[in-house]
């Protein structure tokens, strides 16, 4: 019988725009095989004690560390990130695996108590089963670990589907997991949007998705009654008051251009009081002028993302106050490089405000009062993250309570650690990444109550 020829996807280098390789375009048979491999591995993996799973996850972390340079190079190949950023993200991914390896040993201990006379009750937190994890191209390795580390630590098996443009580290990860965790505990599927849809509709028990609002909506429609955890778009507001610290503008811009602005929690909409507007625009423009594409940050990930940047900046109503520069070698001129841009004087329905640009772009909006600033901050359907900048502690604490977002920073932005939860509201999705709370995303409680009298011989 003739063997079916594998269909492949062309991979492009974001720095040059040229072909750098190819990956398999997985379809029904490949998805079915990957899910079945995880289904077969599930009984043995979930039967391990938390200590035993922790030992294997620690071995995985050690294996990644031993090949850290290869992981960083693979991450950079798919994303175009500066080398230091790629290496730092590998370190963060390893730290997160170690965190969840130990966290699951304590946070999911059965709770017991004599809550009814003559009875004893307890709660077991059990794994859901096979989890489909779909992650984007902006942080391919880190977003995968955010999802799969707590899922694996709690006894689930995982089918990982990376973005079609950044499959490299997912394949490396699956290779090491096969040796350290066991065959089938973590499998990886490469492919496009259709591959992800097939995974959602397959025999998985839960789906963890990180991506766009449109993609998350499609996941929910296809998942039916399966458990879903969604981390979607941000379009995050920044409220900077007249008494903001001196470092405000430089730090807002630094967070906005990190990873070429391709972070769901990146600053996007800067909101200032009217009397402070002109100064804020001047300061932000000066700060953006210190960041050059190709020197300070990398390219956008793909041609579609570059076209989105071009479309939004060309839209009617957009007033470009500042636009930075691109400084790259001649051989990279055709890459997906886009400079910083500061837009001001926009109507509230301008695409640069209502859509998440996902690029090194900031808009500036004027508010008549602090209350109006809060209203503008809460005016978008996304509610992932925000920041408040003021020297007044009472004002800061008040605004953190009034701004609707899953994560609010004060006098900083894009500061995260494994111990603190991250998750959105509204169109930014539901569920929790990071912290011990993420363990609950991949477990379900079982209540057990036993009579103590007259039932035991």
Describe this structure as you would to a colleague.
A seven-stranded mixed beta sheet has the order 12-13-14-11-10-16-17, with helices on both faces. The chain has 14 helices and 20 strands. The chain has two domains: 245 residues, Aldehyde Dehydrogenase, Chain A, domain 1, CATH 3.40.605; 175 residues, Aldehyde Dehydrogenase, Chain A, domain 2. Helix 3 packs across helix 4 and helix 4 runs parallel beside helix 5. Strand 3 and strand 4 form a beta hairpin. Helices cover 39% and strands 21% of the residues. With 457 residues, the protein is of the alpha/beta class. The model has no long low-confidence stretch (mean pLDDT 95). The longest helix has 25 residues.
Shape verdict: globular
The CATH homologous superfamily of the largest domain: Aldehyde Dehydrogenase, Chain A, domain 1
What is the CATH class name of the largest domain?
Answer: Alpha Beta
Helix content: 25-40%
Average of pLDDT: 95
Total DSSP E strands: 20
In DSSP terms (H or I, runs of 4 or more residues), the helix count works out at 14
Largest sheet: 7 strands, mixed
Terminal CA distance: 63 Å
Radius of gyration: 23 Å
